[in-house]
From TrEMBL:
It is found in: Secreted. It comes from the Bacteria. This is DUF1800 family protein. InterPro entries: CalX-like_sf (IPR038081), DUF1800 (IPR014917), TSP3_bac (IPR059100). It holds the Pfam family TSP3_bac. It comes from Phragmitibacter flavus.
């Protein structure tokens, strides 16, 4: 152990405190030292400090080269040293020193300097920040000593500082999950020659979309820093058509296997044909060239049509993501091409004209005459129907309604609305009502492109809602018999379906009173008053009020004899007159009240910003700007023709808004949303054209793994609250992330496990006993990009049939993440695939399964940007 001393420091307070600063450097054997000079080879490489004699002091700062190596400081910089400082401000005294990540620092104290008198005062692991320690002034004299040593937390033979410098994990002896330890890998490859190749992560770019061309330069073998040379040619001009590195060389850093070179288009106003950029590796010192040394990128001009990435991103917002592409590594999926061809607005207009894809016809077929049971098709028929419509299937020729064009925009909007105007099958009365629940959901489907006012009325008078929020069979008040109207639906139609809890400005911000407090939209008296409106409603097929019925496919009827026909005052300002009851179940008076109440709530200025914001959250981003909400609110208030509540205008305002379409938003850390767990499954299914041989989709039970299923919310408050904010940075920035409410310690495991099981088997949670009903991914096209398509059915194809993984990953990137897969994720997935050896049983299938799994469990897939 070597030590050095600093002069004693005298401080008055009021006695003299003597502080002797003693530095102790302790080496460990947890270092790479191939040249056996007691100094870490990694430290020598890091500071270009080769051939330094350990006992000398290259920068004359008072510390030997060996001491600098132990402390991790620069031997050529006299200001880089383990310096312990002491300061006093008249009332206190403290010592402080700089730290490096992975080094251990210990402060010892002594009153006498005798060898056995030193006592440890503080031991810490360095963080890279300066550390401060208050000193004890109770005794007139103290001496302090700083010790610096190495750690080897994972006991693999490399110190923590070395591992951090190499980019390894100091807490795992096998950072890259290889068969050998980190030390063995570094020791073996320290002087190994490198072989350099190139790969293509993004081959096509456009002047008006920030999807830059991206090339990977990869090396195998060595780990020391390496400078690689290349040339760039082609019809595109460097500097005027695109920008990239200023020189024709790049350095691969220490222990780095892959670096990336971006090609950034330079927009111009001159129409041009597609130009090319040819990139070619050149020989250099310290490496040899591998097989792949040249590639060509395509630079496209600005276009009025969306790029493939822009179209794929749009479909993640407006539908259920890209479909499966039929052939080729860079083939554009059909629905992505449809968006490109029609443009965003044209695609939306085309969707508005599609036939309506209702759920109930399928459920009617399944239930009527026991058809489904006769076919051995058991389960949740309304969810089977949901999947059938969402997947756009017309593969059941025996069912007349099946052959119908898919309507993904309508279905996506309906799913969003179903999470605002919630009815769930959790109650026992509703869980067995497959037809009735499908009929209620079809209100969302029907009115997705209609008027929100009409949807409100149909929701208020539907028996499924009447059961769920308990206003079916609601009688007018009879104080003598202690009968009072149920207030459940009255409360929720205000709180959740129309106006919310607080008065809002058109941009969604809260209005404030003179004291700066938010203004409530209603109070308990308003709930009680509105509950009187929703009295007298009962089953539509009954001739007796409040008679039990199983008919949930007819709107409720009004019985004026059970309706409160007295005058009412809504929200404290809007009077409803006394009504004259009509005989029997004609319901003229009661329905007049219902319509008047619906009209009053619908015309409240809160509805546009309140509902508009939630639809933005479900489709585009969790934290829309006030300006974005204001534009959507304005479209709700007036579609341009004086019509309020036009859902087509609202949908266009949401999906075509500059913020929704601006690609720059993808790099904004506050933009986007956590994708709903269930919708991830749907995107996953569509990306691989999942289907059963029968054409049916008998899928349900997704709440088990994902806490989410259509029509299965745990309460009227949906699966998650629109203002939910998980603890941590999101809350600290006053942001919300609703979907995180159903990401917990359980679903964080069951969700990824579901995907792994689905990739390896079927999309069913518990399987399906009938082979024809097993819904599986159709991935032969992708499998033919892992290995020569001619041998995909072999159990163990020869290694000669293996194909470059890059085209496959580009395809999966577009289909699953909309082209946003990060280069680092691309590298991780590619390398993980290639670790499955070609001698492994069904290695080609295992590689594909792993690639899909790693993407669908990545942040790039789980976060919609």
């Amino acid at each position: 152990m070597a030590t050095t001393s600093e002069p004693m420091v005298s401080l008055q307070k009021p006695l003299v405190l003597f502080c002797l600063l003693v530095f102790s450097f302790s080496r460990t054997h947890a270092e790479l030292d191939k040249n056996a000079n007691s100094q870490s080879d990694i430290w020598e490489l890091h500071f270009n400090a080769f051939n330094l004699t350990p006992g000398l002091d290259a920068d004359n700062d008072g510390y030997s080269n060996l001491q600098e190596a132990t402390s991790g400081t620069d031997p050529f910089d006299p200001t880089s040293l383990p310096q312990l400082k002491i300061e006093a401000d008249g009332s206190s005294i403290h010592t402080f020193w700089s730290t490096l990540p992975g080094k251990r620092y210990r402060i010892d104290t002594s009153e006498t300097l005798l060898p056995n008198s030193w006592q440890p005062l503080l031991t810490i692991t360095g963080t890279g920040e300066e550390t401060e320690l208050p000193l004890d002034l109770a005794d007139p004299r103290h001496f302090y000593r700083l010790s610096v040593s190495n750690l080897d937390s994972d006991a693999d033979g490399l110190s923590d500082w070395e591992e951090l410098t190499l980019g390894l994990n100091p807490f795992s002896s096998r950072s890259d999950r290889l068969d050998t330890t980190d030390f063995q890998q570094i020791n073996t490859n320290w002087n190994t020659p490198s072989t350099v190749t190139i790969g293509v992560l993004d081959q096509s770019m456009r002047e008006d979309w920030p999807n830059n061309g991206l090339i990977a330069i990869r090396r195998s073998g060595g780990i020391q820093p390496l400078t690689v040379f290349f040339t760039i040619d082609g019809s595109a001009a460097r500097g005027s058509d695109y920008t990239t590195l200023p020189t024709n060389q790049i350095t691969i850093p220490l222990n780095t296997r892959e670096v990336w070179i971006e090609f950034i288009p330079v927009p111009d106003t001159d129409p041009e044909a597609t130009e090319t950029i040819t990139f070619t590796l050149q020989p250099g010192t310290g490496y040899t060239l591998g097989a792949a040394t040249s590639t060509t990128l395509n630079l496209h001009d600005t276009s009025t049509q969306p790029s493939p990435q822009a179209a794929a991103r749009f479909l993640l917002q407006a539908a259920f993501g890209p479909d499966s592409a039929p052939v080729g590594p860079d083939t554009i999926p059909p629905n992505v091409q449809d968006v490109i061809t029609r443009g965003f607005s044209g695609w939306i207009t085309h969707q508005f004209d599609r036939p309506i894809g209702y759920l109930q016809p399928y459920v009617d077929w399944a239930v009527t005459g026991n058809a489904a049971n006769s076919a051995g098709l058991y389960g949740n028929y309304k969810q089977f129907a949901w999947w059938h419509r969402t997947m756009g299937s017309n593969a059941i020729p025996s069912i007349s309604f099946a052959a119908q064009d898919p309507d993904p925009l309508r279905q996506r909007i309906a799913f969003a609305l179903s999470q605002i105007l919630v009815v769930s099958d959790r109650p026992e009365r509703l869980i067995v009502q497959h037809q009735g629940m499908a009929n209620y959901y079809d209100l969302m489907v029907k009115h997705a492109f209609g008027n929100y006012r009409d949807l409100l009325y149909d929701v208020a008078t539907h028996p499924a809602m009447g059961i769920f929020l308990s206003h079916l069979g609601n009688r007018k008040a009879n104080p003598v018999n202690r009968i009072y109207p149920d207030e459940n639906f009255a409360r929720e139609i205000m709180q959740l379906f129309t106006i919310g809890l607080w008065q809002l400005n058109p941009d969604g911000t809260r209005q404030l009173d003179p004291e700066g407090q938010p203004i409530p939209t209603y109070d308990n008296g308003d709930i009680t008053e509105l509950a009187r409106v929703f009295t007298g409603l009962s089953f539509g097929d009954s001739n007796v009020f409040n008679a039990y019925s199983d008919v949930f496919t007819m709107p409720m009827k009004m019985w004026d004899a059970e309706h409160d026909c007295d005058p009412k005052l809504l929200l404290g300002t809007h009077p409803l007159p006394a009504r004259t009851p009509s005989p029997g179940n004609t319901g003229t008076a009661g329905l007049a009240d219902v319509n008047a109440a619906i009209d009053h709530l619908f015309n409240h200025p809160n509805v546009g910003p309140f509902i508009g914001k939630q639809l933005i959250q479900r489709l585009v981003t969790s934290n829309p700007s006030p300006a974005y909400i204001n534009r959507v609110s304005a479209a709700f208030a007036d579609n341009g023709s004086g019509i309020r509540g036009d859902m087509k205008a609202v949908i266009e305002a949401i999906l075509l808004d500059p913020e929704a379409r601006d690609p720059a938003k993808m790099s904004d850390p506050t933009w986007g949303k956590l994708r709903e767990p269930f919708l991830r499954v749907v995107n996953f299914a569509r990306a691989f054209n999942a289907r059963s041989t029968s054409g049916h989709y008998p899928l349900d039970q997704f709440t088990t793994d994902h806490l989410q299923d259509p029509m299965n919310a745990p309460s009227v408050f949906n699966f998650f609250l629109p203002n939910h904010s998980p603890p941590g940075p999101i809350t600290e920035q006053n942001l919300v992330a609703p979907e995180f409410q159903i990401i917990n310690a359980s679903t964080a495991i069951t969700g990824p496990n579901y995907f792994w099981n689905a990739i390896n088997g079927s999309l069913h949670r518990f399987g399906n006993g009938t082979a024809a009903y097993n819904v599986r991914l159709q991935s032969d096209t992708e499998l033919g990009m892992v290995v020569n398509p001619a041998v995909i059915n072999q159990d163990t194809p020869s290694a000669a049939n293996a194909l470059d993984p890059d085209p496959l990953l580009r395809r999966l990137d577009l289909a699953l993440t909309g082209g946003t897969l990060s280069p680092h994720q691309f590298q991780i997935i590619r390398e993980a695939m290639l670790r499955i050896g070609t001698g492994t049983w069904q290695w080609h299938r295992q590689r594909l399964r792993l690639a899909i799994y790693l993407i669908v469990t990545s942040t790039d897939f789980n976060v919609q940007r």
